[in-house]
Write a structure and sequence with these properties.
Layout: E1 10-17, H1 23-30, E2 36-42, E3 51-57, E4 70-73, E5 85-91, E6 99-101, E7 109-111, E8 113-128, E9 131-139, E10 148-152, E11 157-168, E12 171-182, E13 186-192, E14 201-207, E15 212-216, E16 230-232, E17 237-240, E18 255-256, E19 274-279, H2 287-300, E20 305-306, E21 311-314, H3 320-324, H4 336-340, H5 352-363, H6 374-382, H7 385-398, H8 412-415, E22 427-435, E23 440-449, H9 452-456, E24 464-469, H10 486-498, E25 500-502, E26 505-511, H11 514-518, E27 521-525, H12 533-540, H13 549-558, E28 564-565, E29 573-577, E30 581-582, E31 585-586, E32 591-594, H14 596-606, E33 616-621, E34 624-630, E35 638-642, E36 655-660, E37 667-668, H15 670-678, H16 683-700, H17 704-713, H18 720-729, H19 740-760, E38 763-764, E39 768-775, E40 802-808, E41 816-819, E42 821-826, E43 837-841, E44 853-856, H20 864-867, E45 877-881, H21 912-925, H22 928-942, H23 947-965, E46 980-981, E47 989-990, H24 995-1003, H25 1020-1023, H26 1032-1055, H27 1061-1066, H28 1078-1104, H29 1109-1131, H30 1168-1176, E48 1205-1208, H31 1225-1228, E49 1230-1231, ...
Parallel strand pairs: 9-21, 13-20, 18-25, 22-24, 29-35, 32-34, 39-44, 40-43, 46-47
Antiparallel strand pairs: 1-3, 1-5, 2-3, 2-16, 4-5, 6-7, 8-9, 8-10, 8-19, 10-11, 11-12, 12-15, 13-14, 14-19, 15-17, 22-23, 24-27, 25-26, 26-27, 28-36, 30-31, 32-35, 33-34, 33-36, 37-38, 39-45, 40-41, 40-44, 41-48, 42-43, 42-45, 49-50, 50-51, 52-53, 54-55
Helix pairs in contact: 5-7, 10-21, 13-23, 16-17, 16-24, 17-18, 18-19, 22-23, 26-28, 26-29, 28-29, 28-33, 29-30
């Protein structure tokens, strides 16, 4: 046998163990032989009378106790077996591979693991190039062997061990700590060689974010459990969030960037992310050889390089935080020692908005508290607060580390920085804090869609803080169900109870909803002298009747849903109507009615980016929630609400819209494929769809017609593919034209689609729909009957439940397609065989006014949506598939009972502490992702109808309801797979032969890395347009707006961890979200980018001089040209010299020769329909949203057989759906509060205000995008001051702004720039460039005019 003593580890196999043996007993028997790191007990298939096991020692034991083949241990039943238990033992396998090849020199070998003893550890910060400030040193005593470092090249880790003296409730003790440093988290590493003999080797590691720290539990026996048959040594190591002398100290303090602990021994592991290891060989020989081998290996693996002249600074020069907080230490609390650390001249108190942005820069590692000087703080304090804040925003947006902050004060770009102009009325500037196990990171306020609470308290919006708990580096959610994370859960509790401190403000816990809870988030609020968190919660509604903590929190969360408030009407006419109930089931759970007139008002008010007027809306209204569908018995401004929709009473009853019904094609995924395969669909059906899809993707990159057809057949949830198809049809990608933006989004679409095929088996189904659900109010559709369940032979369609689905035909929006025949209907995720149902789609004339929704029956013995993964009609999306090859052999497996477990009711009112505790309990026990992945693996092995999979499906249902019932789903280890199918890409795997395995094998080599291209020329049809030639003034204005647009885009990219702007424009994200699902992320991206687009469209309209098509065309052409200029400035390619360039100012001095970052090119494409108009010289008709409608005469979106389809034309008398269907003229005629007349369902002028808007608003051309209202709640943001104009009469008297003719002056007017010597109340003057303009905060004074701060 080889020399096992030099192996990195050694495994021993155990046989003939008792059936009731436990890992704790095995550890007790064999731990005297060496350090055990892993125990696994299992039962061989050929031996059912005893257990076998594996024990791993690391490093190998000191003696070869296995050579005899037998090992005698005390028997668990000592009375029956006094002689003990004889265990058969042997080495698990042959000699492991002890070395690893160099990645750059294959002939060079290194040990997999090298363990070296340390002479010391030093913690600090990198304060400059090759400069480290040491803030804490841990020297090694002569006899201390705990200090050591393990370099594992296979795992790509450095593990550092050290001791620490602590005080716990049980007394003083020495804890053993370890630091796990992944190679991938090392930002910079330097090796300093010994300067003389006997000096240690220095390894300086600067990390991207804090490492993971652990402390070892001394009582190993407490880490074992009776039911688990495996054990890992990591279970004895508990995560550390702070390293302090008294372990109870942190719980007494709020979360803050700077920990204010009264502990001189404190190690700030969250902030001190530069670690220096002093490597010696005091306990080993041959230190020189070991050092050289270590240096060589670290260099080869790209970890570190040798460095000369690295400077080390010891001690602290001064405390930034003492200076910032100096007002708190004067008087009785001051002491001489503290005052000595302060400068002679203290700066004035820094305003909160500046202090917050300073902490943003420090927490992101862009500024270092050790390099910020008193002089820098003095300059910040002297500067005008908005200027100082923008200076720091410049640092954050540049995202480049600044070692010397004083250089910022000499940077003109920093002082002239002005990224944001204003935000839409339905958005707000939101501050965000990411709480990790060791630190906190703040974000620059970003524009997000607001919710009810932010709108109510918009004058103090800066006192709201959105928080989220994640792992270090924001690399996902904190792992659940691990006792080893006990200190992390305590830190969460500490955050919720003690709050978050920023400067002199203490943000307290406010509330969270189900959506925030699933994303590990909540909202905090900093109370004022007259508004507390309790006051806000009381305003939200009356929740006293709710005694279930989880449900209480969910109802609070209704007020935190991101919504658009409908401003055209204050409160709708609310009419209660009864639910349809039968057999203990509610068939109308969550769905109500809305009038056609009110639906039209919604569309006009919020300018929905949809291709057809929707017939249903997901909404919030006071304490009501769910879906409102258009029905003729709802008149005027009526909303019909059911009891199932009303959750609580609220003073506020305004109508708020979350989203509208729209069409998308459905996709298969891993869960649905698993279920359908279990129900008898052959894998060849899936492979047939897959192969056709792969072929189409290949063909689409070279053939525009093929690409357009594919984009129109497979419509995503945000309908981005339809917009891309329009761009291709406009000729932006041809043999002679390769427009870079269009080429990039098309390439991204392909890469994203192939990536989802590989990772999620996301196969598009052409004959399908993914739509919102609602109910048949007429009772015409046949309902479910138990007689049709689990049918394999008697497949009588006349007994199936019926649905109605009518989808928009994207070749002609006046035509729709009614689906008829056998269909599948389901909801994601589907884990139970009964979650996907076979139904009959029928044509019902009474339902013809409903399109792009699936209508479920209100008859039968059980609601169909309830059988679909426990769905309801309060906003759930359903997939409907009429692809013949996917109809299963087994129809309608008996559905699962989705009745939620009975929650625990309190015998008292719910209080805020209950909410805090439930939040942490949920975070600790939310096993939903683990259950879903376990089910996927078990279903591949045993089938979804197996007992273990049915148990997992039931647990999954409990986990889904956890946020509402408060009862967690307990996931035991015996339900988790020991081996995984290969398509899940986990370590211990087997090759799956099921459909998912075959799909993975087919696509694994087809994934394509998306790489943006920049060398393609811009489209000369626009840059050389004969009619719309922008002058130099327009070009300058477009450049200024683009700077602000690019900054806003980069903030969103950083916030969502996106690499390119193309992912933002399309919603096709190539990276995984830190927390939450890919579907939710795509939805969030679409919503947030829509808000940003609308914001900058309004800015561009005003700079262009109005919305007349000619003005818009000319300005969008300018936007396109300046974008091309930036690409040319960086790459020198992508365009050719054109006649007249000098007239357009293309060599303008404003263009830098080289930009610091890659140029953003999506700016002009926020007006993609205008670019189409410019390129094709055609006036395209517009929908109400401003999105171009699709010309008639194109290929139908969905190929359907005559038997399955009925195509309707609403303009034909026989199937007409118009005003007659919704009552008479008198029924729908109304007058709005601002005097607008509604006649025959048509608003003459709904919301546009002629006082605010330019004269071009009333031009005869109706093809341009309607202007968004500048009425109620329009926010002009400049600094942190918000001015809100409310009321029509007030608007007419307060807005007295002269609109200059110059584009630059219009832009100056927009951002509030004035000349100092000409500043007057209510006036805007010409003549200054933007960089010289003084920032103006618009505030409404008591006389109703505007004044300048």
């Amino acid at each position: 046998m080889p020399d096992w003593t030099v192996w990195p580890e050694l495994g021993i196999r155990l046989d003939h163990l008792p059936l009731n043996v436990t890992p704790a007993q095995v550890w007790k028997w064999f731990s005297p032989e060496g350090e055990i790191t892993y125990i696994d007990l299992f039962q061989d298939h050929d031996n059912q009378e005893s257990m076998s096991g594996k024990v791993k020692f690391e490093p190998p034991p000191k003696r070869a106790f296995w050579k005899t083949g037998q090992y005698i241990v005390p028997h668990p039943d000592g009375l029956a077996y006094p002689a003990g238990l004889s265990i058969s033992i042997s080495v698990w396998k042959a000699a492991p591979n002890c070395s690893i090849r160099s990645p750059i020199c294959p002939g060079r070998q290194y040990p997999i693991k090298t363990t070296l003893h340390l002479l010391g550890i030093q913690f600090g910060m990198l304060i400059g190039h090759k400069r480290m400030e040491i803030l804490k040193s841990l020297p090694v005593r002569d006899d201390d062997k705990i200090f050591k470092a393990e370099f594992n090249l296979k795992l790509k880790q450095i593990i550092v061990f050290f001791p620490w003296n602590v005080e716990t409730h049980s007394g003083k003790q020495i804890r053993r700590y370890k630091i796990i440093i992944e190679f991938s988290t090392i930002k910079d590493a330097h090796i300093t060689r010994p300067s003389s003999k006997g000096q240690p080797l220095g390894l300086i590691l600067t990390l991207k974010f804090p490492a993971r720290y652990y402390w070892e539990r001394q009582d190993i026996n407490s880490t074992f459990t009776e039911e688990d048959k495996s054990w890992d040594s990591s279970e004895a190591w508990y995560r550390a969030t702070d390293i302090v002398k008294d372990v109870g100290t942190p719980m007494l303090h709020p979360i803050a960037l700077h920990a204010e602990y009264d502990d001189p021994e404190f190690i700030n592991i969250g902030r001190w992310t530069t670690i220096r290891l002093l490597i010696g060989a005091r306990y080993q020989s041959g230190d020189t050889k070991i050092h050289e081998n270590l240096i060589s290996s670290l260099e080869d693996f790209g970890v570190a390089n040798c460095c000369e002249n690295f400077r080390l600074l010891h001690g602290r020069r001064f405390s930034l935080w003492n200076i910032l907080n100096h007002t708190k230490v004067h008087g009785e609390e001051a002491n001489a020692l503290h005052l000595l650390t302060l400068p002679a001249t203290l700066p004035a108190q820094i305003p909160f908005e500046v202090r917050y942005q300073l902490e943003v820069c420090i927490s992101c590692g862009l500024l270092n508290e050790q390099t910020i000087t008193p002089e820098f703080l003095q300059e910040l304090a002297r500067a005008e607060p908005t200027k100082a804040r923008l200076l720091l925003e410049f640092v954050a947006d540049q995202n480049e580390k600044v070692y010397d902050p004083m250089t910022l004060l000499r940077d003109p770009d920093a002082w002239s920085y002005f990224p944001d102009v204003r935000i839409p009325y339905y958005c707000a500037l939101v501050r965000k804090a990411i709480i990790t196990p060791t630190t906190v990171r703040f974000s620059t306020p970003t524009v997000e869609m607001s919710h009810r609470v932010l709108r109510r308290y918009n004058n103090i919006h800066d006192r709201f803080l959105r928080i989220q708990f994640t792992e270090e580096g924001e690399e996902g959610r904190i792992k659940v169900n691990k006792e080893q994370n006990d200190e992390i859960w305590k830190r969460l509790l500490r955050t919720l109870y003690q709050g978050i401190k920023i400067g002199d403000r203490l943000y307290e816990f406010l509330a969270f909803g189900s959506s925030q809870l699933r994303q590990s988030g909540a909202f905090f609020f900093c109370p004022t002298s007259h508004i507390s968190c309790d006051d806000i919660r009381k305003w939200m509604g009356n929740f006293d009747h709710i005694r279930v903590i989880a449900k209480y929190s969910a109802r609070l969360g209704q007020c935190l849903s991101t919504t658009r408030e409908i401003r055209g009407i204050s409160v709708p006419m609310i009419r209660p109507i009864p639910d349809i109930e039968r057999n203990g089931h509610c068939f109308t759970d969550g769905v109500g009615k809305i009038s056609q007139f009110l639906a039209q008002m919604i569309i006009q008010d919020i300018h929905l980016d949809v291709f057809e007027n929707p017939c249903a809306f997901q909404f919030r209204m006071g304490g009501c929630k769910g879906v409102l569908a258009v029905w003729e018995d709802a008149k005027k401004t009526e909303v019909h609400v059911r009891q199932s929709q009303e959750k609580f009473k609220s003073e506020f009853n305004g109508l708020e819209i979350i989203r509208c019904a729209k069409f998308a094609t459905a996709t298969l995924n891993r869960q649905t494929i698993t279920i359908l395969e279990g129900l008898g669909v052959p894998y060849s059906a899936f492979l047939g769809l897959l192969n056709a899809q792969l072929h189409d993707y290949e063909f689409a990159m070279d053939d525009n017609l093929a690409a357009v057809g594919l984009l129109r057949r497979f419509v995503d949830e945000n309908q981005t593919t339809l917009a891309i198809a329009e761009l291709l049809e406009a000729g932006f990608k041809t043999g002679s034209t390769q427009e870079p933006f269009v080429v990039n989004i098309l390439g991204l679409w392909r890469s994203w689609s192939l990536k989802l095929l590989k990772e999620k088996a996301r196969i598009h189904v052409e004959r399908s729909a993914f739509v919102l659900g609602c109910v048949d109010e007429t009772g015409s559709l046949r309902g479910h009957s138990r007689e049709t369940e689990a049918s394999t032979k008697d497949k009588d369609a006349s007994k199936l439940p019926q649905i109605f689905i009518q989808i928009t035909t994207h070749k002609d929006y006046a035509r729709t397609t009614v689906i008829k025949g056998i269909c599948l209907v389901g909801r994601n995720p589907s884990l139970h065989p009964g979650d996907i149902r076979v139904v009959e789609a029928v044509d019902e004339p009474k339902l013809h006014h409903l399109r792009d929704v699936v209508v479920f029956p209100s008859t039968g013995d059980r609601p169909v949506p309830n059988m679909l993964s426990g769905g309801d009609l309060d906003g759930d999306d359903f997939f409907v598939i009429w692809e013949d090859s996917l109809i299963p052999r087994i129809w309608n497996w008996p559905p699962m009972d989705y009745t939620a477990s009975k929650p625990k009711y309190l015998d008292r009112d719910v209080n805020v502490d209950d909410l805090r505790n439930f939040f942490v309990k949920y975070m600790k026990n939310d096993a939903l992702p683990l259950i879903a992945t376990s089910h996927l693996a078990m279903a591949d092995k045993y089938g979804p109808e197996s007992h273990i999979c049915l148990r997992l499906a039931d647990l999954h249902s409990q986990a889904v309801d956890y946020a509402k019932t408060g009862e967690p789903a307990i996931m035991k280890k015996n339900l988790q797979p020991r081996r995984w199918p290969h398509f899940m890409e986990k370590k211990s795997s087997y090759h799956s032969v099921k459909a998912l395995g075959k799909i993975y094998d087919r696509v694994v080599d087809h994934t394509i890395q998306f790489t943006p291209i920049w060398d393609s020329p811009f489209d000369e049809r626009i840059t050389c347009h004969k009619t719309f030639k922008p002058d130099a003034d327009l070009l300058r204005a477009a450049r200024q707006i683009k700077v602000r647009y690019d900054t806003s885009v980069r903030r969103l990219l950083s916030q969502h961890n996106l690499q390119t702007e193309f992912e933002l424009w399309t919603g096709f994200s190539l990276s995984k979200p830190n927390v939450g699902s890919d579907y939710k992320r795509q939805e969030d991206l679409g919503r947030e980018y829509d808000a940003l687009k609308q914001q900058f469209r309004e800015i561009c309209y005003e700079a262009a001089g109005g919305k007349h098509p000619e003005a818009v065309n000319r300005f969008v052409a300018a936007m396109y040209i300046v974008t091309e200029e930036e690409v040319k400035a960086v790459y020198g390619t992508g365009s050719r010299e054109r006649p007249g360039d000098e007239d357009r100012g293309l060599q303008s001095p404003q263009i830098e020769p080289v930009l610091k970052v890659c140029p953003m090119i999506s700016f002009p494409w926020i007006f993609h329909w205008v670019l189409i108009r410019l390129a094709t010289d055609k006036e395209k008709s517009m929908s109400l949203s401003g999105v171009p409608s699709i010309p008639q005469g194109r290929k139908s979106l969905i190929p359907l057989s005559d038997e399955q389809v009925q195509v309707r034309n609403p303009h034909q008398d026989a199937t007409k759906v118009g005003r007659d269907q919704f009552g008479t003229k008198d029924d729908i005629e109304a007058q709005l509060i601002d005097g607008t007349i509604i006649q025959e369902g048509e608003p003459l002028i709904l919301f546009d205000d002629p006082v605010l808007d330019s004269p071009s608003l009333f031009c005869a051309d109706k093809n341009e995008e309607p202007m968004s209202s500048k009425g109620d709640n329009q926010q002009y943001i400049n600094g942190d001051t918000t001015s809100v104009t409310a009321g029509v009469e007030e608007k007419r008297t307060s807005h007295k702004i002269e609109i200059p003719e110059s584009a630059m002056d219009r832009l100056a007017s927009l951002i509030g720039c004035v000349e100092d010597e000409q500043a007057k109340t209510g006036g805007v003057y010409k003549g200054q460039g933007l960089n010289q303009c003084k920032l103006m905060t618009a505030q409404q004074d008591t006389q109703g005019g505007w004044r300048r701060d």
